[in-house]
Design brief:
seven-stranded parallel beta sheet; four-stranded antiparallel beta sheet; globular
Length: about 500
């Protein structure tokens, strides 16, 4: 999208029978080419470009987003009152990975924290990670005491202390999907390169035992990982005192790290969309897709997730994946269909009420816009939630569409940056990983400037998607080098650790 856009509507593909309102349109407005608005149409919503009969497929992006449930006159609002889902037939599609992203002619860099593992952090935090909910308050008490005592005052290279609590760790089976998922998440968080050191705190009698995490979880380096249980240490007060002392020792080690040049290939970007609207798939998401391609060209890794929110658009990913990768993605889709069925849910229970107010109607429409975050790079691999990602390029990590949970998995998988697009105004942050917020429309950006880092709404006014993607890419490098995001400035990140809880709670 280039040049000055003056028309109030946008047709995304010549095959579409709907157009998009780029601003609020009053009834009777001339939309051009003989089309007149039959009623008031909100920004981001769909308008019938021609008469649509009952049962006729409705197309946006050149793709089917549903079927008309009643006759729709030209110029009428197309939304939940006259557009419904059809049976979704899964399609793997023929693999075509020939159009690979060409390596960048110049290697870009950022200033990061080099870890013994070879990975590079964009922040340098001390973490207090809990094995079970029962240890959550004590972890917070330790962090509060350390802050009150000014423990970090003399450690200028440490960004802060992050106590991490959650709602699980016990009352669960010690084997199976639920246990394995939580284990990967906790072990992955502890090894995220944005942590300089970790204190692991447990109660002592929980299912998720510390020795298992320290051993199989790979947390054996005593300079960076220490542990204690509340029961063995002598209770709350004794654990707080001991915890603060351990944090001071860990801080001595973590403070030795200093920012040093690192190649952009060391970046791993988790990409999310939340509170999406009808413009998300037109502005912010494709602009983030351009930034993703720029990172992939540098040899970096970008992570697409939210399996329930690519449903109906998976063929756009399998078409650019090797056969085994495409089959792995479809296997996760099949798992999700079974997961929903056995829990009395449906894959098409999206979009949310807020998404609908913003103009999205069916999960097919939402998914087609969400996949735009993936740019054009081939899909190189499919990983489980929180599984360590060990290759560059565009990656898919299986996760729910619930944003805090999905980001938690991406950070456990190794993400050291997060980019989050929103059309309704999601507010959140994800310590220890900085998160930039991309507003899909200018109205939102102006209303919530203290929360939004980038306005992608000016794409509607003529800024090219390519230029906006380059702007996002440059900001990601700056944030990786230490520039604070809006969510960091406001102190977000204390409650957004949300492991995916699968299985029975006993």
């Amino acid at each position: 999208m280039t040049g000055t856009v003056t028309a109030p509507i946008l047709r995304l593909n010549t095959a579409d029978n709907v157009v998009i309102a780029l601003r609020d349109i009053p009834a009777g407005a001339d939309l051009g080419d003989g089309l007149v608005a039959a009623e008031d149409i909100p920004q981001g919503h769909k308008i019938a470009a021609k008469p649509i009969s009952v049962g006729e497929t409705v197309r946006k992006y050149g793709q089917v987003i549903g079927v008309a449930t009643q006759v729709v006159a030209a110029g009428s609002h197309v939304h939940i009152h006259n557009l419904g889902m059809q049976d979704h037939r899964r399609e793997v599609g023929a693999a075509d990975v020939a159009n690979r992203i060409q390596p960048a002619p110049r290697q870009d860099s950022f200033l990061g924290y080099h870890r013994p593992s070879g990975r590079v952090g964009t922040r340098n935090y001390l973490g207090i990670l809990t094995t079970v909910n029962c240890a959550g308050s004590v972890a917070r008490f330790i962090a509060e005491r350390a802050e009150k005592d000014g423990l970090l005052d003399s450690f200028e290279n440490i960004d802060g202390i992050v106590p991490i609590s959650h709602g699980s760790g016990c009352g669960m089976s010690g084997q199976g999907e639920g246990y394995d998922t939580l284990f990967r998440t906790l072990a992955g968080y502890a090894q995220n390169p944005n942590f300089g050191a970790i204190l692991l705190v447990g109660l002592g009698c929980e299912v998720m035992q510390i020795p298992a995490l320290m051993g199989k979880g790979g947390l054996a380096d005593q300079a960076r990982f220490r542990f204690m249980t509340i029961q063995q240490t002598g209770g709350t007060a004794a654990t707080i005192e001991a915890g603060v002392a351990v944090l001071k020792d860990l801080a001595e080690q973590a403070n030795k790290a200093q920012r040093a040049p690192a190649p952009a290939s060391a970046l791993m970007l988790g990409m999310q969309c939340g509170g999406s609207d009808g413009l998300s798939g037109i502005t912010a998401n494709p602009a983030l897709g351009v930034a993703s391609d720029l990172l992939v060209a540098q040899g970096a890794t970008t992570i697409l997730s939210e399996t329930s929110e690519i449903y109906g658009a998976e063929h756009l990913l399998t078409h650019r994946a090797a056969p085994d990768v495409g089959e792995a993605l479809m296997a996760r889709i099949a798992w999700w269909e079974d997961y929903c069925a056995r829990n009395f849910g449906e894959m098409d229970n999206n979009p949310s009420p807020g998404n609908k107010r913003g103009g999205l109607t069916t999960i097919l429409e939402k998914s087609l816009g969400a996949v735009a975050k993936a740019g054009t790079a081939p899909l190189e691999g499919v990983y489980l939630f929180g599984e360590k990602i060990d290759r560059p390029g565009l990656i898919f990590m299986d996760s729910p569409g619930y944003d805090p949970c999905s980001v938690t998995g991406q950070i456990a998988s190794g993400a050291n940056l997060i980019a989050f697009t929103t059309g309704r105004g999601s507010v959140s942050g994800y310590m220890p990983v900085p998160c930039i917020k991309l507003a899909s429309n200018t109205v939102l950006y102006n209303r919530m400037q203290a929360d939004m880092d980038v306005n992608c709404g000016d794409i509607v006014s003529g800024v090219s998607i390519t230029d906006k993607g380059a702007e996002i890419y440059r900001l990601l490098l700056s944030v990786a080098s230490g520039e604070k995001t809006k969510s960091e400035a406001q102190g977000f990140g204390g409650v957004e650790f949300v492991p995916w809880q699968i299985g029975a709670v006993m």
